[in-house]
Structure formats: structure tokens, C-alpha cells
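USER: My hope is that you can spare some time for a protein that puzzles me. I am handing you a single protein, as its sequence and its fold in C-alpha cell form. Walk me, if you will, through where the backbone shape changes along the chain. The protein I mean follows directly.
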Amino acid sequence: KNFRKIICRGFEEHTKIVLGILSKAAETGETIDLQSLFLRFTFDVFTNILTNPENVATFVIAFEHFQSVIMKRAFNPLWPILEMFSETGRNNRKYHKILDDFACSIIRERLQEPPKTESPTDVLQLFMDAKNANEESLNDKEL
């Protein structure tokens, strides 16, 4: 129930923004890049639902990098060997660190502040409130 509310609220807020952009383009006859608009919409909703961060530019770059890497890996069974010695592998390690640092900083920040409301406002808070099979709070890696 809480998960659905969080997702619906995130989509509703960002859908209004996208509809505003599309309406303006329709009125002015402006050409817009729908793929770019929808990609931005997806990232905005995704990051808002998960963590509600304000600045996600570096995260988006790293995330986009791994989207293309995953597609390439799907068609190359030798990717683990090739990436050990290539620039792609070095970039992967760099971008992996960016994603890890981004996630860890949000988790650390959220663990230090008390929840602002009684019910969770995003997916991260849902997981922070969850317990594992041993009835213990999830650790940083699990989060």
C-alpha cells in the first residue's frame, strides 16, 4: 500500500511536468526530442521514488554508462576478460564507484536523520524500516 502511494505520487508529479512541456510545444509548434524527454522523466521519477535527491547529474551519467555496458555484455561472453584490460573496464570501475558513493551517501545521510513522517515517503525509507529474516534492520550493503 505504501509502495503504491509513493510510486503513484512520484509519477503524478512528474507527469504534470511532462504534460506541461508537451502542451507548450504543441502551442508553439516547437520540435522536442521525445526520447530525451522520456529518459529525463524516467530518471527523475526513478530517483525521486528511490531517494528524493536534489542533484543526480553524476548518477545519471554513470547509470547511462552501465546501460550501454550491459547491452554490450549481453552479446559478448568474453566481457569479463576483455574488461580487465580495457578502457571500458577502467571506466566501469570509475562509474561503479560513483554509483556506490552516491547510494552510500544517501543511505548515511538518511540513517542520521529521523524520519520526517510516520509513514514512508520513498522506497529507501520502506527498506530502512524493513527487517531481514533474523528480524534485524538491514545493513548499509543490503539497503
Notes: The chain has two domains: 1-50, 54-143.
